[in-house]
Amino acid sequence: MKSEILKKLCDNRRYVAIERDNLDSGNIRGFILALSNNLVLLQNVVDFHLDGYSIIRRRDITHVWHNEFERYYKKILKKEGLLDKVGLQETISLNNWPSVFHSLKRIGKNIIIEKEFPDVYKFLIGKIIRINKKHVNIRYFDANGKWERGFRYAPYEEITRVQFENEYIKVFSKYLHPLK
Question: How many Cβ atoms from other residues are within 10 Å of residue 103's Cβ?
């Protein structure tokens, strides 16, 4: 994806659909808030509401759509009063994955880390514990809302998407068992 196109879409806060053919059959829809040489920060839009943020690898992007459908969708979002809410208060450093995780650790909320390869899908949800040169350690919680005793690690070369402050994370986090 050409840098100048992505930068223009980001600067003008265009609503876009991002295709990543090698990873996911569905598109990520939302607003590009920031980008670096390697990563893109998006505010997700799902079913006509803002739903947290995603950070994806730039190299995985195969196409960015901003055509008549996206323009019409943006008009609906404007009429729903959502365009004024597009943005992020916190600053997320997008230099590399370690800088992303240092920024997110300062925020202190639970996150989702994904490895979205067609043959292997990995999903980790929880709190950032430690940030190393080659991977991040996360205190994981399971589908019963129970925290694991130890931690899991995610190698940076396997991470394709990081999500934070979305509805799934926020609601699940309210009902977690206490951390022992």
Answer: 17
d(CA 97, CA 163): 13
What per-residue string of b and e applies to 131-170 under the rule 16 or more CB within 10 Å gives b? beeebbbbbbbeeeeebeeebbebebeebbbbbbbbeebe
Q: Is 110 within 8 Å of 136 (Cβ atoms)?
A: no
Chain segment 18-33, per-residue pLDDT in tens: 999 988 778 999 999 9
- The per-residue pLDDT for range 75-119, each reduced to its tens digit, is 999 999 999 999 999 999 999 999 999 999 999 999 999 999 888
Q: CB of 94 within 8 A of CB of 36?
A: yes
Specify whether the CB–CB gap between 160 and 57 falls below 8 A: yes
What sign does the dihedral 80-168-95-120 (CA atoms) show? negative
